[in-house]
Amino acid sequence: MTVLFFPEYPEGRDTAKNLCARLGYATTTNPDDPWDVVLKWHDATYFDPATLDRLPAGVPVINRESVDISKTTVDQAMERVFGYSARIDPTQYRGLAVEKSDLNGMHDGRVVRCPLPKESLRSGRVYQRLVDSTFTPGIVTSFRVPIHGRRIPVVYLWYRPVEQRFGSGSQNRRWRVGGRPHFLDPHDAFSTDELTNIMAFTRHIGLDFGALDILRDNGDGRIYIVDANNTPVGPPRRIPRSVRWIVHARLSRSFDEMLREFRRAPVDARGNLELSGVGHKSGPSRPDATA
Fold this sequence. Notes:
Layout: E1 2-7, H1 15-23, E2 26-28, E3 37-41, E4 61-62, H2 71-82, E5 95-101, E6 110-114, E7 125-129, E8 134-136, E9 139-148, E10 155-161, H3 169-172, E11 176-177, E12 180-181, E13 183-184, H4 186-189, H5 192-204, E14 209-216, E15 223-229, H6 241-264
Helix pairs in contact: 1-6, 2-5
């Protein structure tokens, strides 16, 4: 199989590039070359759909409809699917909150105390309640959730110092607490209803392939999706060797299944999938939390 990455080619530790190599699949970024399946790859918060006009009409494109992964869009999708989100009005909310860029991948969050005067609000920033995901004093947790079509192959559980909660995962990730590896079966991390809503969220924002960052609040027990990424990196380097092959096998299998489903899926005139249960245009279905 040959995978066309368009309009950009993944770099370095990008997940899709690594999994194609592991599966022995050829890759190209030239739509004039022979290819079997298309994965839209554009490492930015926003995407102009007209860029895909160079591709043949009606061809299924993974992440075709993933055109906006801003924090604002993530919060709006949370509210639509879950009925709540972390978004607040910083001039009215009372308590600790997070101020961060609306753009993806900036890692520039900071804790602020609300309410804030209107004149202090910064352009291009979003404000969210501070989700309390404290594990032990000084350590906070978060979940990284890979999305492969309608599958969640594995869930990573991150531990990091509280002062680095907004930092880059590659710099601050801790993969062992008490010597135990921390990768989870999706059903051990989330309830069935939560998994169903997570997949509904991905369909709502058009995310066929990517990863979500999710926090669970110690106060109300609910989960909060705080970030969506359609050009994910990984698998993480620090996965313990004892389980690394399991993680790689799960990721490779689900990625391969996703590619094959998109390759053969019927599409409408815009290239949106019509195969039930696959991709963001499908109706409600039970998520395949691959184990």
